[in-house]
Amino acid sequence: MSNQPSLEELRVCLLDIANSPIAKRTHAAFLLRTEGSNEAATIIADALRVREDSSLMRHELAYILGQMQHDSVCPLLETILDDENDDVIVRHECAEALGAIGKEGSIDILQRYCSHEAPEIYETCQIAIDLINWKKSSQNVQKEHAHGGSRGEYLSVDPAPPVAVTAATKEATVEELQAKLMDAKASLFNRYRAMFALRNLNSDASAMALVTGFQDSSALFRHEIAYVLGQMQRSVTAEALSTVLRNLDEHAMVRHEAAEALGAIGGQVAVEVLTEFTHDKEQVVQESCHVALNIIDYWSAPTAEASE
């Protein structure tokens, strides 16, 4: 008999803002993502509509909708993006989700926000448009499928397709990709392509090449660097991520993503720095630290180790 909770149980947990801890609700949201049905997407969408929820939770919900790729949720994502009274981080994630879903009808609203005053929004919208246009080419889609499809080994729909890298040229390619990653004259879309190619190389060298991205002037870019390092789970990057989290002058969006990356990496260093910021003045940061610590605790439990 399966111990998997029902969709109704997941819905109740996800919508129980008052009584369910955010870590538990986040877990419920990702179980719904794995379930993948239209009904699961509807539950996620209903939760995203709840403005009283935290920006961290709602931004995770928008991210999940992008990953699930049901275009029925596009009107909701567009409505939130179009709402100047909503949280910038949530609106940015809605724009990214629209790019992940890839519906050409979303281009109009994305273009409207390409000149928005908040760089987190206008940069995301431009990347999303570039992704949709890239996917419009049948030749690009064929290349994508030839390299493992849109999700790849990390099982994520990325905001930009990685540059193709052959196994024979991995070592020489790290420097080349790092140069593309840090080319401030290139579009963010093309720099993201280099970023995800470095992620796919999945070595300590490629991870440390990505760490140099924390020097970039774009907070959106820096936050994506942290996200990718969390996917890679390379302990060699824990020190750099800890430095980002400890930097109180850094954008909260970047610090929160660094916290979640440390949760994915785990270890005593991560536990210590995350614990240090569980009462951070930025709600999105403190909540991310609690979620990250919960993840570390879960995977450290004997039952989790036994089931791997």
TrEMBL record:
Cofactor: Fe(2+)
Entries under InterPro entries matching the protein: ARM-like, ARM-type_fold, Deoxyhypusine_hydroxylase, HEAT_type_2, PBS_lyase_HEAT
UniProt GO MF annotations: deoxyhypusine monooxygenase activity; metal ion binding
Residues annotated as binding Fe cation 2: 223-224, 256-257
Catalysed reactions listed for this entry: [eIF5A protein]-deoxyhypusine + AH2 + O2 = [eIF5A protein]-hypusine + A + H2O
Keyword S-adenosyl-L-methionine applies: no
Chain positions of HEAT repeats: 73-113
Record's function text: Catalyzes the hydroxylation of the N(6)-(4-aminobutyl)-L-lysine intermediate to form hypusine, an essential post-translational modification only found in mature eIF-5A factor.
Name of the protein: Deoxyhypusine hydroxylase
Organism lineage string: Eukaryota, Sar, Stramenopiles, Ochrophyta, Chrysophyceae
